Amino acid sequence: MRTIRSLTTVAPGILFAEGPASNWTVFHGRGHVELVDCGYPADRPLVEESIRATELDVEALKRIIVTHGHSDHLGAARAYSEGSGVEVLAAASELPNVRREVTEQVTVADLMPVALRRGTIPWAVAAIRAGGLGDVGVPSAQAITADVIALSTGHRLEVLPTPGHTSGHACFFEPDADVLITGDALVTGHALLNDAGELQQLPTFFHHDADGAEASARRLSLCDARWVLPGHGPALRL
């Protein structure tokens, strides 16, 4: 049974959801909800549970901003877009991946060299069961057109380009709360990592451009944040 690992209020109107295998952030206020990422497709009930935890209904969801176009971050974004008219945004250079005009995602061939590593096969099976191979592309996704996104909730997000994990991966910084959302540029845990609870990169084979991912991670380490909200692993208070 899929359950939320934890819900953490990191600042007024900012709720971090640590999902079964990937995470999302719920911004809420002024009667509106906006998400950054939304887990795997199978996490849709959990996403809606996290929205209700803010004492708002799912109908309050106005927009989903994605760090990158992997299935464990796009989740049910297409269903929300087509069914409820929810706007989906990503960095312009990430749109081909989000729309599935191209696919920058780990493949079975990428996993073969590490298939015997402890945890690889259980992780892969769980990812597939969660919808990791599903048709999650969002044809209607639009490009982020500003350096700072003003949210309908009263928050604002500074856009930090962090290419490497994917070509157009982006992170987001909420300056009023000093909250950094890192997607998969930096994580604090993953089924295929030995350590948990500290900032680190995913295994190299997950990255479209490993050198670029390392450079982006170094730049993020200079960001003056009080909270780091990663795509995988628990929230980290600095």
CATH architecture group name: 4-Layer Sandwich
The largest pleated sheet is described as:
7 strands, mixed
- In CATH terms, what is the fold-level topology? Metallo-beta-lactamase, Chain A
The averaged pLDDT comes out at 94
- Taken as a percent bin, the fraction of beta residues is 15-25%
Strands side by side in the biggest sheet? 1-2-3-4-5-6-7
Number of domains: 1
Could you characterize the architecture of this molecule?
The protein has 238 residues and is α/β, with parallel strands linked by helices. It has one domain (6-232): Ribonuclease Z/Hydroxyacylglutathione hydrolase-like (Metallo-beta-lactamase, Chain A). Helices cover 21% and strands 25% of the residues. It has a seven-stranded mixed beta sheet, with helices on one face. Strands 8-9-10-11-12-13 form a six-stranded mixed beta sheet, with no helix packed on it. A hairpin with an 8-residue loop joins strand 9 and strand 10. The radius of gyration is 16 Å and the shape is globular. The model has no long low-confidence stretch (mean pLDDT 94).
In short:
The chain is α/β, with parallel strands linked by helices and 238 residues long.
Map the helices and strands.
Layout: E1 6-11, E2 14-18, E3 23-29, E4 32-36, H1 44-52, E5 61-65, H2 71-74, H3 77-84, E6 87-90, H4 95-98, H5 108-111, H6 120-129, E7 142-143, E8 148-150, E9 156-161, E10 170-174, E11 179-183, H7 210-220, E12 227-230, E13 236-237
List keywords for this structure.
globular; 7 helices; alpha/beta; seven-stranded mixed sheet; six-stranded mixed sheet; Metallo-beta-lactamase, Chain A; 238 residues; 21% helix; single chain
